[in-house]
Structure formats: C-alpha cells, structure tokens
Design a protein that fits this description.
The chain is of the alpha/beta class. The chain has 2 domains: 115 residues, Aspartate Aminotransferase, domain 1, CATH 3.90.1150; 244 residues, Aspartate Aminotransferase, domain 2. Helices cover 36% and strands 13% of the residues. It is built from 13 helices and 12 strands. The strands form 3 sheets. Strands 2-8-7-6-5-3-4 form a 7-stranded mixed beta sheet, with helices on both faces. Strands 9-12-11 form a 3-stranded antiparallel beta sheet, with helices on one face. A two-stranded parallel sheet has the order 1-10. Helix 5 links the parallel strand 3 and strand 4. Helix 2 runs antiparallel to helix 10, helix 4 runs parallel beside helix 5 and helix 11 runs parallel beside helix 13. The radius of gyration is 21 Å and the shape is globular. The relative contact order is 0.17. The structure holds pyridoxal-5'-phosphate. Pyridoxal-5'-phosphate binds next to helix 4.
Amino acid sequence: MTTSSSRTKEHALAHYRAEFPIFEEKIYLNSCSLGALSTRVEQRVADFHSMWHARGASAWYDVWWEALGELRDGYAQVIAARPSEIALHASVSTATAVLASTIDYRSRPRVVTTSLDFPTVAYQWFVKRPAGVELVVVDSPDGISVPVAAIAEAVDDRTALVATSHVFFTSGAVQDIKAIARVAHENGALCFVDAYQSVGQIPLDVHDTGVDFLCAGGLKWLLGGTGIVFLYVRDELTKELVPTVSGWFANERQFEFDLREIVWHSDARRFEQGTPALSSVFTQLGGLEIIREIGVPTIRDVVSDLTEDLITGAQSAGLKPKVHPHPDCRAAIVMLPHDDPGGQVKRLADANIIADARPGHVRLSPFFYNLKEDNVAAIEVLTA
Ligand SMILES: Cc1ncc(COP(=O)(O)O)c(C=O)c1O
C-alpha cells in the first residue's frame, strides 16, 4: 500500500502517512484500538535506550526527570489545562483507582455510569459494592448514545460521582460532557470523564467543560502506545482530596525516604503512584509532538471528513453503519453491524487491512494518516 504523490495530495495531512511504516504493507483502520507507530516515536525510544546505555541511572537526575515534566506539560496543553492539574499513570484503571480512593462514600454512596462506558471505569466502583457503594448503570436506548436527561434522572443527592466517557468506544458517539458536568454539580456530585477515545481527535478545553476529573493517554489518538495515561484533576479540587491508594511519587518529599510521613504534593502529582515506565514516556512524547505540531482542530477537520466518507461509502454499498444521527456528534469510530464480525475482520486481514471486531460489529476507525482510498478498499472487502 505505497503512497503515490497523487494520493498524498488527497488531504492536508496525507503527507504524514510516510511517517507511519505500517502503510508500506497494510491499510490500518484501527486507531481506536491502538494508534499506528511512527518513525518519530521509534527515534525517541531509540534515543532513550542510547541514554540508558550511556548514563544508566544518572540520567534520572536531569534528562529523565525533566521528561516527566515535559510530558505533564504536553498533556496539559492538548486539553488546555495547567500542568499542575496533570498526574501521570500507567492506565485508566490505575488512575481511576486512585481517584475512587479519594471519595468519602458514607453520605453519598452512589456512582452513576452508563451501559456504553468502558468496563474498567465501572469496575472501580463495582468492586466497592461490599463497602456499600452503589453503582448505577444508565442504559442506552439505542446502543449509540445516552440522553443527558436519563443521566440526570439517575443523579441525586446521594450521588458522589458521575463517571462516563467523552466518546463512547462502543459507538463513536460524542457526549455533551459540559451538560453532564452541570447535572452532576447541580446535585452536589463530582464528574469524571474517560476521554481516552477523544483526546487527540476531538478538540477539548477541559476548563470550559467544567468536569472535575478527566483521563486519556497514549494508546489511541495520542499515538503514544501502551502504558502511559494522564489524570486531570481540577486545581481547585486537588487540595480537598486525599488518596487512600498511593505511592512515593505522591509525596512532595519523596527523596527524604521517610516511610512515616507523606507530605502530599499540592498539585495533581498527589494522585500519582510509582515510577513511570520511561520507554512509554518517550513513546508518548514522540506521539504528542506530532499531535501538537498538527493541532487537534486540524486533525478533527480531516478526520471528520474521512469518517463521513466512510459512513456514506458504507451506506451506498448497502451496509448499515450504527452511528450517531448528527455528524457533529460522531467521532472516528464506525460500527458496522454483522453476524460474523470476527470472520469479516479475518477477511480484511487477508486483504492486508487491519480492523477490529466488537460484539455484533466490525469496527473501523480512520485517523489523519488514512486516505479515502483506505475506506474504499475496506468497504470493497466487506461487501465482496
Ligand atoms: C474508553 C476507554 N477507556 C479505557 C480503556 C482502557 O483502560 P486501561 O488503560 O485501564 O486499560 C479503553 C481501551 O483500551 C477505552 O477505549
């Protein structure tokens, strides 16, 4: 699947495709699972390994420590937050486990989520049921989205938290998180947003949304691979929250090694745990460099166009994409109902097209390195 010069003119970002070697052999349409690996990221990781060879642990004292700060800054910029509002984590699971540990559930035992959210988020509260936490799951009427009114109905003065997604991994629908945060706050509850499927593809001004906590990371739309995410915590809230799941990176005086005392960081680092995986940190720094160089609004324009092209192409070929009715509320995840999604994904793989399956659906997700001809090729296989 080489890229000819006429193809690279297809859209404003098509020239970036050359930085992603997977396209030399394959068509990649699975960014909502794992963003493609770029040569820029490979170089950052190679540089990290060279540094490790050259300096061993002494690199911690300048280059590597500074890289952690650089990453918190980079994550903050991409969601228009302050660096002091960013904690680094290994996964959404670890980030939400710490967040869940800061809440006093005695007078507010309820946590409200939806049936379309990613299970790992709900599990943080599911496992606390023996301690009296009530997990309320609001159902989706159509498997695509959940009306804000239905969420509002479930939130009451016994609710501690509303925990839901910005973009549903199940349908690609974009939620109105500003309205959901308002519902939570009107009832005295807090609001956590799992934005793993949005940050990098959907522009986000986190302060404007009013949410209290937000998570995203490298794996998908930030091109940074596995093992690195961030937890945003609104500055005004940080000092009110004391984690009961922790680690030495939460301690402002971590290098005093005093096991009898934790002096909590006054910023979001108080929600961190242990030593970050440095190779993931450098992978993510490389991916973020590309995302910030292009800018998320530009990415959104190009990717929306590719997504709409995929949807209309699929419809014209007789497929029935299950997507949000309003294009503005669609992200780059296109679910195509099928009786044998696993079989279809295998057929795509045999044609050198990488896609994915979820129960009852083939899932295709284009990003800025895709071309409309990738959509055409996938639809051809799916309808052959
Ligand atoms: C919306 C969403 N949240 C969370 C995760 C993963 O969570 P974790 O980092 O705990 O593996 C995924 C997928 O990998 C996801 O799509």
